Structures are given as C-alpha cells and as structure tokens.
Amino acid sequence: MDGSYLKPAHRYLIFNIPMTFRQIGLFARLDDQRILSTVRELRAHLLTRGVDLNPQEDICYNLFASDIAKTVASIQSHIDLGVAVGGDGTMLHLARHFSSTSIPLIGVNLGRLGFLTDVSAELMLEEFDEILDDRYYTERRILLHADICRDGETIAEGVALNDAVISKGDTGRMIEYTWQVNNENVGTTRGDGVIVTTPTGSTAYALSAGGPILHPTLPALSVVPICPHTVSHRPIVLDDSSVIKFQINDLADAVGRVFLDGLETASLKGNETIVIRKSEGQSLLVRAASHNHFEALRSKLGWAG
C-alpha cells in the first residue's frame, strides 16, 4: 500500500491488511426495501470491480437471522472485508459477531447520524472505489466485555463496541451503586444509572449524558453517571486496562437493567456485581482515504465551520 495516501496519524495502525479486498461479505437487515435497493446497487458495482461476493447466490447475509453466529463462523475464513448496510445499530451488530476475528469492517449509512456507518449511500460507489484502489486507512477500536454476577455466579455476559449501561429500569426513583476501579474504591453514587463507554461509543448515549468526546483510537474508557443526585459526580476517563466493578445496592424496589450496545443483556434484582473491562476482541474499521474524523463531527453534530 502506498503510504502517501495515508494520514500520518494513522500510519501506525496499518499492518496485516490485504493489499486488495478480493472477497467481501455484505450484511444487512433484509426487511427494508430501501436497504435492499442499496445492497443491490453496491453488489452490482462490486461485481464490476472483480470482487468475489459471498454468497453469490443471495443478495447478502441477513445479519439479524437467528443463525447468524453460525454463518459468521462458517464464512470468516473466506472473506477479507465485512460490509454492513444500514444504520449504526447494524454496524454494532456486525462488530460484535466479528469481534473474535481479524476481519476489517466498513459500514454504509442508511440511518441517522452514522458515526460508524460513515460511508453515505450517495457517495458509496466512489468511496468503495477508493478502498478497492488501496486508498484507505484502518482504525482499531476496543470493545467492552461485561460479566453480570449474582450470588457468586455469572448470570450473563457479553461484548459491546459502544457502551455498557446500568439502568434503573422501570422505577421513577434513583438507584444506588458502589463502584471500584482496579479494586480501589471510587465511591457510592445515586442516580438514574451509569454508562461505561469506549471511545467509539463516546458520541452515542454517553454524549447526551454529558460525557466527553474521545478520539476513537484512544486507549481509554469513560465512566459517565446518568443524572447523578450529587452533581459533583462527573464523568471519569480511565486507561483501557482498567477493570471497573459496580455493586448494586438499591434498586428502589424495581427491576434494573444492563444493556450492551442498547440490547438488554440482564435484569437486575439489586444484589448483583457487574464487572466491565476491555474485551480481548477488537474491531478493525476501514476508512476511505478521503474520510476526515473532525469533518464528520462537524457535520453530524451541527458544529459551525
């Protein structure tokens, strides 16, 4: 790959990537005609570029099929790029399923903001031409792993590219939790809950809760209280090697919830411990050489300039 195409800040991120993406897997939700139309357009263009699409007999893989985990396991040795067509939720779903692989991913945005699926449908063909002509860079994104334990037993676990959220659930009252970082006590907080976010997820729920925007390649995690009763309890940015433990003390006689990337992973009764750390897996996102992170922030967040 010609390094002249690469932004200097990202050169160190590029290694073990094929010179050309020859086998591409397309993934989407197949119950939306607009998405199918975009998939067909992209598929036809990629075929003209000599790309081997899997599966050739179908439009694309149904990312939300019940057997998608089995499908990913069976095809991962046969593709060198995964493409999500849809919104950021589609990309999050794809990233979780590919978190244990080294296959790079890219997304075509048919949703709203599109921080992850940053290739617009209007410029889709041009940007894929850039990528197929080896004019791209990559970004490694960390993921979270969460273990939810009750009475010493793990009742649920999972990974998230964006965030892990502990929520008060159905109650209109506050919940209380005590938390630690690397076995050091931080304190006890009462409020609506807490978000642990990766840099990727810092522009998602955590942003609306007052959390900081982190550059997506930072080796960091952020802990963002949701409407804390004590206003001095502010978001904290931690090294990504940190192990964060929450002990649920009081749910105000209601059922709490743990969400990973917006999907409910466990319900809480009030005596659980939730341990969140960086996952061993990761996501490798592909960006066309013309992509500009700060231009994307300006556009999607409505900043002037």
List keywords for this structure.
305 residues, alpha/beta, Rossmann fold, Tumour Suppressor Smad4, 2 domains, 6-stranded parallel β-sheet, 6-stranded antiparallel β-sheet, 39% strand, globular, disordered N terminus
Itemize the secondary structure elements and their pairings.
Layout: E1 23-28, H1 33-48, E2 52-54, E3 61-62, H2 68-75, E4 81-86, H3 88-97, E5 105-109, E6 119-120, H4 124-132, E7 136-150, E8 153-160, E9 163-167, E10 175-181, E11 184-191, E12 193-197, H5 205-208, E13 220-226, E14 236-239, E15 244-250, E16 256-260, E17 263-268, E18 272-288, H6 293-301
Parallel strand pairs: 1-2, 1-3, 1-4, 4-5, 5-6
Antiparallel strand pairs: 7-8, 7-18, 9-12, 9-16, 10-11, 10-15, 12-13, 13-14, 15-18, 16-17
Written overview of the protein:
The model is unreliable at 1-19 (pLDDT under 50). Strands 1, 2, 3, 4, 5 and 6 form a 6-stranded parallel beta sheet that branches. A 6-stranded antiparallel beta sheet has the order 8-7-18-15-10-11. The chain contains 6 helices and 18 strands. The chain is of the alpha/beta class. It folds into 2 domains: 20-133, Rossmann fold, CATH 3.40.50.10330; 144-281, Tumour Suppressor Smad4. The radius of gyration is 20 Å and the shape is globular. The chain has helices spanning 33-48, 68-75, 88-97, 124-132, 205-208, 293-301, and strands spanning 23-28, 52-54, 61-62, 81-86, 105-109, 119-120, 136-150, 153-160, 163-167, 175-181, 184-191, 193-197, 220-226, 236-239, 244-250, 256-260, 263-268, 272-288.
